Amino acid sequence: MRIVLGVAGGIAAYKAVLLLRLLREQGHAVRVVPTRASLEFVGRATWEALSGEPVTTDVFEDVDQVAHVAVGKGAELLVVAPATADLLARAAAGRADDLLTATLLVARCPVLLAPAMHTEMWDHPATVANVATLRARGVHVLDPASGRLTGQDSGPGRLPEPEEIATAALALLEPARPADLSGRRVVVSAGGTRERLDPVRFLGNRSSGRQGVALAQAATERGALVTLVAANVGAEVLAGLSRGVDVVHVESGEDLRHAVRAAARAADVVVMAAAVADYRPTTASDSKVKKSGGELNLTLTETTDVLRELVTDPPRRGQVVVGFAAETGDSEGSVLDHARAKARRKGADLLVVNPVGDGRGFGTSTNEITVVDGAGDVVTTAAGTKLEVSHAIWDAVVPVLDGRAAGTDDAASMPA
Ligand code: CTP
Q1: Which CATH superfamily is domain 2-171 in?
Q2: Does 97 carry a binding-site annotation?
Q3: For residues 183 and 268, is the Cβ–Cβ distance under 8 A?
Q4: Is residue 346 marked as binding?
Q5: In degrees, to the nearest 5, what angle opens at C-alpha 211 toward C-alphas 206 and 215?
Q6: Ligand 1: distance of its center to the CA of 273 in Å?
Q7: What is the maximum span of the chain, computed from C-alpha positions, in angstroms?
């Protein structure tokens, strides 16, 4: 994908650096077009180094290349972050007094503007009118986030987080998704649990929660009412979610078990994408464990298998249960051999298998998966961004859900 990233002159220009990295990590070619004023905040060298492309601000640079037309014509997606009050005004007026506004006039691709400015400027009737004009023309203008602004003031006007901007921008290119989860209630667990050792230490794992968050996002895009049970998922990962997803934060496997089962009482589908600890320290110390020389022995107790319990003691009859299996493959069998055995052992309706290790799976923005059914037979395979993979997973879940008699609300008893 060929993306143009416009950067206007605001302090939030530094966040556009992170946005550029995100877009590059997802494999997109990004041409950065800063305004001259924005170079006061982030310099040309940063943009050139991180994008690997030339950076110009004026229509009189690279005249032989006709840059003021070529950049906009070649764009498949145009994002401006931050979009200042001045940039919005110039875009609304249809001006072409620098390369960015000229590019905005020439481009015929989807355009997303992510505003950032002081609250007074955002609320001013001139800006309100400019935003309305741009939206009426089909330009997507994000609402700014609320919070601390450049000085001591706070309020609406902050640039949304780079993850949120990237999700919103790339969503403009997504094919229209079927509303096949409309009215369905979905619970997704994501992230990695932390099992307390003492007040400052825990046993954890490397799950970032990105795949689970993408699953929740994909489900909302298809019309579902989604509860995300998030185990230690970073704010920057959660920022990729549309507003409207109900997020329940948990820390340990036992917290997660209770939160998932409570939400699952009303759910049609439960997806266990979280990496839940298999063991926790048998006792957690109330005070910090001191170094005493030599070895420290820990005794661990097996945790409840939340997925297995959802199958054997369902909070709601007829609900579809989906598990995950991160596998490496070993001398005993391939990734798929282990997955097939796990599918039969766990008894979930579907098991999503992803190979991990060698930099695959954890913390990355792409994934490759195979979905197997309860008998271990392959239903589908997919590779791509975690959002694309998520839609492939929902494509496999929906027929199972549609084939299921509607659930009832007479929930089984909650675990003690
Ligand atoms: N899971 C769970 N509760 C646990 C452990 C795992 O619900 N205490 C769920 C995960 O959310 C995932 C699936 O079980 O959906 C697979 O987890 P995994 O750790 O791969 O399975 P295990 O049965 O622990 O198998 P292994 O021996 O390979 O670790």
Answers
A1: Flavin prenyltransferase-like (3.40.50.1950)
A2: no
A3: no
A4: yes
A5: 150
A6: 9
A7: 74
Rounded CA gap, 174 and 391, in Å? Answer: 11
Question: Which candidate in 205, 232, 354, 367 is catalytic?
Answer: 205
Mutational pocket test of ligand 1: of 211, 307, 309, the residue with most ligand atoms within 8 Å of the beta carbon: 307
Per-10-residue mean pLDDT for the chain, 416 residues long? 97 97 94 98 97 90 76 96 98 96 96 97 98 96 89 87 93 88 97 97 95 96 97 92 91 98 98 98 95 92 98 96 92 91 94 80 76 95 93 97 65 41
Best of 258, 270, 306, 351 for a ligand 1 pocket test (most atoms within 8 Å of beta carbon) = 306
Which ranges constitute the DSSP H helices of 181-288? Answer: 210-221, 235-238, 253-264
Q: 275 CA distance to ligand 1 centroid (A)? A: 7
Q: Is 60 annotated as a binding residue?
A: no
Residue 287's identity, in one-letter code, is: S
Q: Is 367 a catalytic residue?
A: no
User: What is the CATH number assigned to the segment(s) 185-286+298-410?
Assistant: 3.40.50.10300
